[in-house]
Amino acid sequence: MDIFVEDIGLFYYRIPFSFGLSKREGLILCIKDGDGDIGLGEISPLDGISKERLEDCINNLERFDYPSIRFGLELSILILMLRKGTIKPKKEKVRINALTTRDNLYEVEGLIKKGYSSFKIKVREMEDWKLIKEVRAIGGDKIEIRVDSNSRFSLEMGIEFGKKISPFNISYMEDPVDNPYMFKEFFLRTGIKVGIDKDLNNRDVRYGEHVRAWIIKPGIHGGIRDCIDIIADALRNGIQPILSNPFYSGVGTGGIVILSSLMGLDSYMGLDPYRWIKEDILRDRFTIEGGEIKIEDVIKKITELDRERLIRVF
After folding, report:
1. Do 102 and 56 sit in the same domain of this protein?
2. Which strands form 93-95's sheet, in the order they lie side by side?
3. Residue 34 and residue 168 in one domain
4. What is the CATH number of the domain that holds 11?
5. Each residue of 196-247: pLDDT tens digit?
6. CA geometry: angle at 311 spanning 307 and 314, to 5°?
């Protein structure tokens, strides 16, 4: 199907978060075709993670080598095609994992009662192994536990930490040590498989028997088409593709939900940061029920913006 764009607009947003980040800012790209149908995309590089800055994106929208811009443009087209019915989702709902740290451990029991059955625990130091022990005690065998150290540990510390948590049936540990070339050694010494996030674009380290998951951040690891290629590569190699939300607004979050559904992914996606937005730019926020987001809810709400929270750039 050919897309004929008759109008395009770019809007700036800034929204507060209740946890994880104090605020998030970015751009919303709006395209409209000749029938008056619209598609939205989000261009929101994440400070400290993305190579490009928001100012770079505003001043260089023609720079399609910026992953943030590719994601925003391709998402706007994807949403337009979805709303026009030219592409169809494969899944009616997408499961998400709950993001947990020492600061919000108190939420775990309540989230389990609400239907969450997968938890990703962020750890910062050696003593945080006790968080994994406590979450396992609360949830028992009915929950999946993932761990993320954000490459904080040296190989020696990572192995020590891994041995402490290995009795608690860990699905994988994301970026377990600071040197990705030592991920396999970490696995051999602890028995815990790894998830790769920060070094996902390094093809030298992303394969092997020790790798269980790739944590894919659309807009950071590439645009929609790039991420589709990465997902396909993961599935060919028996690796779980986990789409992750780098603190997007409802537009970017909804886009990741849509991509998960279109690709027919079954695992728990890393979309929980959406729960921490205090004030979204959507008029009506997506509903998270039983640890799941329904694709029908996303399609219905994703183009209904609260214009008062947006500043037009052009």
Report:
1. no
2. 93-95, 292-294, 288-289
3. no
4. 3.30.390.10
5. 999 999 999 999 999 999 999 999 999 999 999 999 999 999 999 999 999 9
6. 110
